[in-house]
Design goal:
The chain is α/β, with parallel strands linked by helices and about 230 residues long. It is about 45% helix and about 15% strand. The chain has a seven-stranded parallel beta sheet with strand order 3-2-1-4-5-6-7, with helices on both faces. The longest helix is centred in the middle third of the chain and has 27 residues, at about 100-130. It is globular.
């Protein structure tokens, strides 16, 4: 079994990578940081020497690098069993106060990159008539955050993409799932004085993803929301 994870070296992506490895998935991972990818690959192989781990230094804000990543994977296998669009960019600001390029930056990472990868690998899954696509959305996909206006816009769009793909691919037996985490304890919260119990743990998202993969052939979890027990921050 083969799985692709973008933004794999930190937070949710890292937790998903380790959890997929524990379930014997070969991994095709990307991140912007070469050293972090080398370290992650070593850790993954130490935990499960039986799996294959392919890594690519890829900036998901660069469309050409994303295309290269997809082509590299295509050279290694026919079709993935799992695609996890996890890489994201969060630039907090109200829309009227943000830099003029803030929407474009977040649109590329949060929507256009998943859109491209869903098309590229969705076609291969369609041909094989099997596969599961996960888009890591956000609670901001349904509850807009005014302090992160353009981020919310892009996450609304990502959820829309997920819903359209779900309808388009269901006749081919391909599953499509949106996971919407609330405030999750990742590097973006580094330095916070709030206790861990105020947050969703990245492992919660990884465990939810694996649970989705274990549903019967006839069952698809369309959308899964994970919020902090104490409410959104």
């Amino acid at each position: 079994m083969n799985a692709i994870v973008t933004g794999a070296t930190k937070g949710i992506g890292k937790a998903i990578s380790f959890t997929l490895a524990a379930n014997n998935y070969n991994l095709f991972l990307c991140s912007r940081n070469s050293a972090e990818l080398i370290s992650l690959k070593r850790e993954l192989k130490e935990r499960n020497p039986r799996i294959h781990v392919f890594t690519s230094v890829t900036d998901c804000s660069d469309a050409e690098q994303v295309k290269r990543f997809a082509d590299e994977i295509s050279d290694c296998m026919d079709s993935p069993d799992v695609l996890v669009n996890n890489a994201g960019l969060y630039l907090p600001s109200k829309i009227l106060n943000e830099d003029n390029n803030a929407l474009d930056q977040q649109l590329q990472v949060n929507l256009l990159t998943p859109h491209y990868l869903c098309k590229f690998f969705g076609r291969k899954m369609r041909e094989k008539r099997s596969g599961h696509i996960f888009n890591i959305c956000s609670i901001a996909s349904i509850n807009p955050v005014t302090g992160a206006g353009s981020y919310s816009v892009t996450k609304f769009a990502l959820l829309g993409l997920t819903k359209v793909l779900r309808e388009e691919l269901m006749e081919f037996g391909i599953k499509v799932t949106a996971i919407l985490p609330g405030s999750t304890l990742t590097a973006s919260w580094e330095g916070t004085k709030l206790p861990p119990e105020c947050f969703v743990d990245p492992q919660d998202v990884a465990d939810a993803l694996i649970s989705c993969l274990k549903t019967s052939k006839g069952g698809n979890i369309d959308q899964l929301i994970i919020r902090p027990t104490l409410g959104d921050i």
